[in-house]
Amino acid sequence: MAEADKQQTEAPEDAWRDGPGALANVPWPALGRLAALLGMLVGASLLPYTTARLDNYRYWDRVDAAPIRGALTMRAPQKPDDFAPAGMPAHDQEELSGDQVLQLAGAGPSQPLPKVASPTTGLSGSASETVAPAQPLPPNPMQVDAVALGDQKVWLSGNDNMAPFYQALEQLTAHRRPKVRIAHYGDSHIANDGLTNITRQLLQARFGDGGHGFTLVQGRTEWYVHKGLTRGASEGWHLVNFLNGNARDGAYGYGGVAVEGGAGEWFSLDTTSKHRAAIFSLYYKSLGKAIVAVRIDGKAARELHVTAAAGTDAVANWEVSDGPHSIQWRVTSGRVKWYGGAAERSEGLIYDSLGEVGARGTRWLNADEHHLQAQIQQRPVDLLIVNYGGNERMDKISEQSYLDKMTKVIGQLRGDPLHTACLVLGPGDHGAREKGKIISDPDIVRINNWQRKLAPLAHCAFLDARALMGGEGGMGRWVKQGLGWSDWSHFTGKGEQVMGLAVYRALLQGIFQYQQGLAGAAPGHGLPAQPTPAQDK
User: Fold this and answer.
1) 10 Å Cβ neighbour count for 237?
2) Using one digit for the tens of pLDDT, what is the confidence trace for 172-218?
3) How far apart are the first and last CA of the chain?
4) Are residues 393 and 535 in the same domain?
């Protein structure tokens, strides 16, 4: 018995001893199955790269290698603050403070701030200089000074197409109209309300806070966020979106993503003392009779009784005292389709951020044209900003087809061209590795050039975001400066703030041009002239 036990314990050792035929004892079948499994996992991770429709599942695009690289090289990471324009918050600060908003808007406290180097953005100068004190807002907020524009060098082209927006601002500041609304459509660059959040805050500091604006019930991904507003929703909703074109009726609403559900499903919005509301709105489509219970600040409020004929789009409003509030809509009977909600105030500027991860502008052709135009009429805007391109760069589409499709999309999203201005905001730079260097992805250069042609065809202004990043190789430099992710495609929180400030300053300089009635700023006014952008090669 003891001898048998000894043989059993020694057998494994003998099997792994070196010598002739030792490899025959390696468990090749098990190792083969393990290798096959690893191969399947690698193949599955690479599959999304074979088609643009699966770009949301490209895991390796989302991995940030900077911490790993830093650990291997023992190099301390650069601080984003070292490259940001004066007045920007620390890199770990979620939002701008009230004083920072006023100061960057040209309306803040009158103390100098240090200038810091940001060579690729054109937003600041040397580290030893100081900025001139920010001045209180002029009696007329339409009056633009050089301080509010900083040292930015890139401005709007085709500024004449912005006239309806500037006229609306004039009427707002003269108290001849209560609200001005902007709709900013785009992809992942604004899906988290990053750059749109700072542009919203700066514009509202100058022209009046009209509230947060529109938000979807649910975004397509977890990256969908709205800053300054807390959203909540039940998990049983069925979601349809304009990217996939999966709604039989082609109805996706103003924001491009709609939800359908029955009794028990709910949606809530919460505002804060900093981001107040006086009017809550729910945008929906009737699917037949339904009842929606409403609670405001925890108390029962007027119910919504959906009695309109099935297929009718509508909006319901609830007025509250101006301040922080919470509202919840809950379906108690019937079935509903909701496009989203809005939190606004009675007067001021409203900036709707309408971004979706993976979005392409051309996919709006999946929406029913009459439905989309009715949605725009139901929520009319004074300025349409179209901000796509990062995802289209991967699509196989000809220049003429792209121009034709996007011209049609802009026409549908714009609504009334006589009273709605239009701005095509070009895609930010995307990097590609070539011989150990990060250059601009040739496909993003191609899309950027197409959009520069698109803007005048659609009677829009154009703002070159790549030029704001320094042109060729801009994203590579932004990553080194802490303004871009190491996927060479997306902005960090600091980068979003820098770009949002640049958009704000471009709009202000456009106002100045509009007031002067010239193609560029007149000499002697201390403002930079309008450059003519050179086309990328």
Assistant:
1) 20
2) 999 999 999 999 999 988 999 999 999 999 999 999 999 999 999 99
3) 84
4) yes
